[in-house]
Every structure is written in C-alpha cells, then in structure tokens.
C-alpha cells in the first residue's frame, strides 16, 4: 500500500528520495574518510616504522589522503551537509598527520644525537684501548728487560772469577793445560750465552775514558797515549741493551807535561789581603 501511495504521488516520492540521500551523505562521508585512512595507511605503511622513517612515510600518506579527497569531491554530489561533515574530519586527520610528523622529526633528531654520541664514545674508547695496549706492551717489555738485567747482573761475578783465574793461573803440566782448556771452553760458552741475551762489554784498554761507562780509580802519567786513555782495566763493565749493568773499573792516563791550571783570580787578592792584615797586626804589637 505504501508503494501504491508513493506511486500515486510522484512529488512525495521525489522528496522522500532526496531526504534519504541527504541523511545518507554523512554516512557516505564517514565511509569515504575511513576508506581514505585505510588506503593512506597501506600506502604510507603506518605503524611499522619509527623515527626518521616514520617522518618519510607520513609525506606520501598526506599526499594520498588529499588526492583521494579530491577524487571523492570530483566523483560525488557534494552539498552543504556533506561538506560540513567531511571537511572537518579531513582537517582533523591532516592535523593529526602534522602532529605525528613533528613527533617523528623530533624523535629522529634524538636518534641522530644518540647515534653521534655513541660514535664519539666508540672513538674515545678505541683510542683509550690503543693507548692502553701500547702502554701495557711497553710496561711488559720494561719489566722483562729489568728482570733479565737483574738476572745477568747477579751472574757477572762468575765472569770476574774466570777472568781472575785466567790471569793468575800458571800452567806447568800437560794435565793442567787440559783442565785449563776445558774451563776456557766453559767460559766461552757462558760468554756466548750472555751475548745472546744482549750483554756487551764496555770499551776497555786503549779506549777514551767515558764517565758514563767507566769508573776511574787510578791515574797514571803517560806520554805514549793521549790524555784520558784507559791504561788498565781492573774489572770489566757491561751493558744490556741501552742499560748500564756495571761500570768498568779502570786506570786512566794523563799528560804529565800539561800546564797546571792557573790560580783563581780572587786567590791572589786574598793572599795580598792576608799579608796586609799580618803587617797591620805586627805594627800594632
């Protein structure tokens, strides 16, 4: 009966359709806006990125949202009710996108600062570790050299005893010569062992005196060698690398004909003052 009534009244039927269309436009606007959101999320990959990547994803999302809105406006009948419903929600979505873009940009800035700070810490840590490695290696080498030097220095009296025995020994029989040869072989082996460790004897007889290497305990006048030449070595000196283990005890020459050092300038004045004082004392007496 309702259909018959509507058919009988065409004007009422047209008005009814317009009213239904007007009431349906807000729902159409919401469906269109929801469709825009879904498509923008799919194109912008929203929810799967953060930081700088999120900021980059929001750009195509906003562009897609505006493009789809333009398509909706171009393809559908738009009246005042549709605009009042659709446009505010579209503006709200754009404002939300701007807020998310600002948040993503701020987050990207924080991540960039954190990354730079981490890089700086890594560089400093790497430099500290390299310095620690070099310092540790130097300390180990210094400790190794110190222990080696102390050990070799403790064995130097053996060298002294062999040297002293060689000077004082007087061989009279073939048996004594064989014993001496055996001991000399042992002495050479010990010297080669020390030399392999880096032990070196300081310059001896005939070398210039060096206060850094020699300990002069005697002097002797000599015109046959230059002044300051080592004439005799009482005890050998040794170095281990750059380190002096023991200074050599030596006798040093000096030139007997060298002129004596002139008296100090104030010495004559002092003697003259003393003589004048004695003369004054005699006169007063």
Could you walk me through the main structural features you see in this protein, from its secondary elements to its overall organization?
It is built from 6 helices and 6 strands, in the order αααααββββββα. It has 285 residues and is mainly alpha-helical. The chain has 2 domains: 126 residues; 81 residues, Head domain of nucleotide exchange factor GrpE (Nucleotide Exchange Factor Grpe, Chain A, domain 2), CATH 2.30.22.10. The chain starts with a helix and ends with a helix. This is GrpE protein homolog. InterPro entries: GrpE, GrpE_CC, GrpE_head. One of its GO terms (biological process) is protein folding. It holds the Pfam family GrpE.
Q: What Rg, in angstroms, do the CA atoms define?
A: 54 Å
Main sheet: strands, sense, barrel: 3 strands, antiparallel
Give me the strand/helix succession: HHHHHEEEEEEH
Number of domains: 2
Q: For the record, give the distance between the C-alpha atoms at the N and C termini, rounded to a whole number.
A: 173 Å
User: Strand tally, please?
Assistant: 6
Unreliable parts: 1-25, 44-52, 260-275, 277-285
Spatial arrangement of strands, main beta sheet: 1-4-5
Number of H/I helices? 6
Mean pLDDT: 72
